[in-house]
Design goal:
Elements: H1 17-26, E1 35-40, E2 44-52, E3 61-63, E4 68-75, E5 77-82, E6 101-103, E7 110-115, E8 119-122, E9 128-132, E10 139-147
Antiparallel strand pairs: 1-2, 2-10, 3-6, 4-8, 4-10, 5-7, 5-9
């Protein structure tokens, strides 16, 4: 399933998707080191995270200008809020080193529940927040593939 607003869709952004899926299928994701790894220049890198989920309202929405985010749940479950509305209002300046900007909560967004083995692909400039509780706090191990052009 690809959920996207047609006005902001650029097929070129999604050319790395097959590469990302191949990586997920061929790699022992329980053994990737925490933090950044598997970097291939600006094209691709892996961010491995572990945390306890929290009330999602504790988190700000963020966007990325240069990379897609593919969030894959290795263990646990979490709620992610994402909006295809790319008309965001910034809360912070854009940080080019982290490809990150915090933005105001969009007027509308979708709540997505991810469970072990699920992934969501979040487009550039799509406001999203992660780490949310579904039913109760749970430990999550997650791989975020950062996909550049």
């Amino acid at each position: 399933m690809l959920f996207v607003n047609l006005a902001s869709f650029d097929p070129q952004d999604y050319q790395r998707l097959q590469e990302a899926v191949d990586f997920l299928k061929k790699t022992d994701l329980t053994q990737t080191p925490l933090g950044r790894s598997h970097q291939d220049g600006e094209r691709f890198y892996v961010q491995t995270l572990e945390y306890e989920t929290e009330t999602i309202e504790n988190f700000d929405f963020e966007i990325h200008h240069n990379r897609l985010d593919l969030h894959y749940i290795v263990a646990g479950e979490e709620r992610i809020d994402v909006s295809p509305d790319t008309n965001y209002v910034g809360l912070s300046d854009y940080n080019p080193d982290r490809d990150l900007q915090y933005v105001e909560r969009p007027a509308t967004f979708n709540q997505v529940q991810l469970h072990q083995g699920d992934f969501i692909l979040i487009g550039m400039h799509e406001p999203h927040r992660t780490n949310g509780i579904i039913d109760h706090p749970t430990h999550v191990r997650k791989i975020v593939l950062k996909l550049g052009r």
